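Researcher: Structure prediction, please.
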Amino acid sequence: MKKFLTIIAALLCLSSCIENDIPYPVVELDITSITIEGAVGEPTIDSGNRKITVTLAENVDIRNVKITDIQYSEGATLSRDMIGTFDMRYPQYVVLTLYQDYEWVIVANQTIDRRFTVVGQIGQTEWDIDRTIAKVYRRADYGLDTVTVTQLRFGPKPEYDYPDASTLRNFSNAEHTQTAIVDSYGRREIWRLIVEPKEVQVDVTRAVAGAKVAWLKAIGIDGAQTGFRYREKGTEQWTELEDSWYTSRGGVIEATVRHLTPKTEYEVIGYAVSDKGEQLSNVVSLTTTETFELPNAQFNDWSVDGGTYYPYLNKDSAWWGTGNPGSAIAGINLTTPHTEGLAPGKSGTCAQLWSQQANVLGIKKFAAGNYFAGTFAGISGTNGVVHFGRPFALRPTALRGWMKYNCGTIDCAPQKTNPKVPGLGEPDRGSIYIALGDWDYTVYGGTPESPVAVDTSKESTFFNSTNEGIIAYGEILYRESKDWYEFTIPLEYRDFDRIPTHIIIVASGSSYGDYFVGSKESIMWLDDIELLYDYE
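Model: Predicted structure follows.
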C-alpha cells in the first residue's frame, strides 16, 4: 500500500511538471455587419483599427439609439449583449473572443444643423454644445438694443421645439445675452445666445504657403463684399484674387492664391466693403517653400541583384521600393522595367506592375504588383513586411503621371470573410494613392526614414484613407482596363495646422493585395510621374 501511494505521489508530482505548450492559433476576429436604426448610409467598418463608425440622422435621439443586429466572425463570443438601446454620445466598447481577445469600438457621429445668425455678423457662429452656448460677433457700430436674428434653428421640428427668432431682439444687457428654451425628446435645454460687439471687422485666420500657392481664410462681415489681396513683399501694388480662386465669400472667406514663385515672401490682406465703407485686416506675411522632384520619376534607373529587380541604381540612391525581394523567394519579380509600348512621346523604360501567384515552400499566395515610396523590410513567415514613406515637409497640390492598366477578373482569393473585399469573378481593382502625414515611427512600427509598417499577416497594420496620421490624401481606383493616359490625383488637405513630415505614394495592380485577393491577369504600367505645386 505504501508503495502504491508512493507511485501515485510520484505521478502527481510528474503531472504537476507537465505544461501545455501547444500554441493556440491566431484568429483575427471581425465585426462584419451592424444594423442601427436611424443610420444614414452603411456604417463604416474599419477592421484594421477595429472601429465601427455610424452616422445618425439629425432627428435621431442620440441618447437612445437602437442596435437591432450585429454579425461577427464565426465561433467568436461577445463580451456584452449589443442588441438594444445605447447612449451613443459615448463610444461603445465590446470584446470579441475566441482564442484571443479583440476589443472593438462603435462610435456614432451626428451633425445637427444648428443656426444662429444676425444682421451685421462678423465671421461664423461659435457653438459650445456641452455648455449650450451660441455666440456671434457683430459690428460694434450696429448697436445691440435692436438685433435682427436672421436664422434660429436648434434641430428639426417637431423633434425640437424652440422660440421664434423674432422674439429675440434686445442683447444690450451686461452679458449681451438672450435665453432660448429648447425642448427635445422630453428633455429641456436652456441655451444662452450671445451677440458680442467687435471692432475688428476682417481678420485673417489662415495663411499657409505651399511652393506656388497659398491657402487663405478670414472672417468678415456677413453680407458685405469680401475678399483678399496679395503682393510680393517690398512692392507697392496689391493684386486682387480671381473670382475662381475663392471657395467661400461672406462671413467666412476662403481662397487659394495661385501662380506664386517658390521661396519668395508675400503679403496678404483681407477686406470687407459695406455701407460703412471698406474695412481692412492686418497684413499677414508668408513665404513660399521650395519644390521637390521625385527621384527616378521616369523609371529609367534599375539594378539587378541575384535575379531580383530593384527600382534604383544602388542602395544609396534608393527612394522607391517594391515587393520583389519577397517574391524572389518564389523566383519571380512582381515589378520590372518595361520597354515596349510606352506612353505617347515617352522613351527609355516604364515600370510594369504584374500581380502574380507565388509558390513559397509549397504554399500558394497571391502577391500584387506594386511600387511605393519606402522600402521592403523583410519576410514574416510567408508574408511580406514593407515600410511606407519618405521624409517630406512640403505641400504639393497633386500627383501627375502616365498610367496603363489591364484589369483582370479576380481569380485568387482566400475564403471571403470581409464584406469590403471583392470576391472571385469580380473585376480586380488597380489603385494609385498619395498621402502626406506626420506619422510617428514609434507608433506605426516603421523607421524614422519610412515610418509606417505594413505586415500582410496583420490586418490591423493595413494602410487606408482613414489613417489618423494623414494630413492630405488623394487616390484613383481603376475597375476596368485603360490604355495609356495622363492622370492627375489632387491632394485634399484635411489639416493646415499640421506640417507634413513624410510622403507616401503607392501604386498597385491589385489594390486588395494585402488580403491576397486579385487577378493574375492584372498589370499596371507607370511612367513619368511628378508632384504638382500649383493649380490650373
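Model: The radius of gyration is 30 Å.
Researcher: Thanks, that helps.
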